[in-house]
Specification:
Blueprint (H helix, E strand, L loop, with lengths): L1 H11 L6 H35 L4 H5 L9 H8 L3 E6 L4 H12 L7 E4 L19 E9 L3 E2 L4 H9 L8 E8 L8 H12 L3 E2 L4 E4 L4 H20 L13 E5 L32 E10 L8 E7 L12 E4 L5 H10 L7 E6 L14 E2 H8 L8 H8 L5 H10 L4 H13 L4 H7 L7 H7 L6 E4 L10 E7 L2 E3 L5 E3 L1 H7 L11 E7 L13 E4 L6 H15 L7 E7 L9 H9 L5 E6 L9 H7 L1 H9 L4 E7 H19 L4 H13 L3 E6 L1
Parallel strand pairs: 1-2, 1-3, 3-5, 5-6, 5-7, 19-20, 19-22, 20-21, 22-23
Antiparallel strand pairs: 3-4, 8-12, 9-10, 9-18, 10-15, 11-14, 11-18, 12-13, 16-17
Amino acid sequence: LTSMGDAGMEANISPPDTAAHQDSLFSMTDVFLISLITGLFTYWFFFRKKKEEIPDLPKMQSVAPPVRDSSFIEKMKKTGRNIVVFYGSQTGTAEEFANRLSKDAHRYGLRGMAADPEEYDLSDLSRLSEIDKSLAVFCMATYGEGDPTDNAQDFYDWLQEADADLSGLRFAVFGLGNKTYEHFNAMGKYVDKRLEELGAQRIFELGLGDDDGNLEEDFITWREQFWPAVCEHFGVEATGEESSIRQYELVVHTDVNMNKVYTGEMGRLKSYENQKPPFDAKNPFLAQVTENRKLNEGGERHLMHLELDISNSKIRYESGDHVAVYPANDSSLVTQIGEILGMDLDTIMSLNNLDEESNKKHPFPCPTSYRTALTYYLDITNPPRTNVLYELAQYATDAGEQERLRKMASSAAEGKALYLSWVVEARRNILAILQDMPSLRPPIDHLCELLPRLQARYYSIASSSKVHPNAIHICAVTVEYETKTGRVNKGVATNWLKNKVPDENRSNSLVPMYVRKSQFRLPFKPSTPVIMIGPGTGIAPFIGFIQERAWLKQQGKEVGDTVLYYGCRREREDYLYREELARFQQEGVLTQLNVAFSRDQAEKVYVQHLLKKNKENIWKLINEGNAHIYVCGDARNMARDVQNTFYEIVAEFGNMSQPQAMDYVKKLMTKGRYSLDVWS
């Protein structure tokens, strides 16, 4: 329209003898303009209408982001709560601890609620002082290399950027970590420090739980000192002994439409029958196992390679990512629990939260059967925590058994020692406890309420999406061991995966899975050298890395030195991916292949010994080649020994003192040149 206006201005300064022509031109222009405007308006009107209609389509609704709940402050006021316990949880333990603390509050005349920070706006913490005797507790797990858990990421980001005044906030933090990791309890320490910096008042010291030791004991020890500090601060007293308070009520469904019953789905009902992307923790993809082969040639262990078909899933992954798998418990264990408790496991039931205001309506998807809950939703193989023993004690009809259970759940030194030896070290799961305490026969619904959720298991992906865009490969070893009681305990996921066979009928070949992104990444420039250290199944991500480097080389890219340090017990027993590695070396993709066979000679040889043997070459790659170092596998011993070896190499060839060498390696980590993918 502006250009038409400009044309009109030019017409006004035309000579007089063209006036009649101008008049006719204007009328034509007007007609053209009106037609154009009408056409544009009509087109815009219908185009806009289509745009408006799109959000109403069911397809769009299913992928809409979840709406955050109202303010947790308003919720606390509405329900008369004064203690909020936030949890940053990856495997469910921090959430479990948060629930226990919130239930504790009633003993002191206070009311607590556990809260997922992902569901609320944490900037409201500045308003918590509006509530009398208010307190915020944070149970924060550290994940990966000092990172927040997925559900605490937004809270962590807010804390980093916040300039809020939290001077009215009273708080306490309990961190969950593992001392075998470099950044022990980093998240708990950060939250504790940052809240104080923002002006909040710490009413009890930071608790640091260590999962490599006895996390349950660490939590109980902290908790038994935390509550007296709360009582002193607020001038309140305990109202009596800890009592059993049910959080959920049982509803048995005698006449129910089976299409409304959950059969193992993690989120949406019938999501396994009607799969819709995007796929994540609450909506896993059912991948078909297309290959499941044994990797080792001998020995007692079973090491396996599985391939999952992700065709048509729209799942994307990169080398170094993790695949999460939802396993199922052994059906024989489930059946035995049902027999001991004398229950029909196919009874359809729901456990409904007695607190109607709670965001968590059920402890697991309901309605469902007891069999489904014990198979897909509940952890029945790990030793139960002390709160479970305390709640179960009331159902033991034998006075001695009841006393034993209560003692193990107490904070007394003798009780803690008994719990450690009889439950933790003996690896007694709930079935073993029921078998060894004949008078303990709890109602199955209360047992289902108390048991923690069965968690997804994570595996480093052993393939490259450049080479295998429609498949994800897993390398794993089955876990099986004899306990002090003579029972044989089996790893839930690895034994379940072992029995997954390629099947055209798909009946026993489906694996619920999703991909979790990782920071374990190849260098941006393919010409950068890489040093990979991965004994045992720690080789998994490096198979993906080498595949990708081979693909890059085929594309004509300049690929730097690719050096692998691998270790296993015996050359003729458990040398994983032997043929593949030999082929990569022959093709010139794998520049160096260094293998340590720990038990093929009198003196044990590990990967760190081979690193020392090649120390000059290692230093040259790091110092001159700017090599990236990757370590995958056991965190407790291997990763620590390898790191110490790098300290020695850097100190010797870099002419540095030990503290300087340690600082040098730490800086490599900060720059992303020394990456870890480890487990304990």
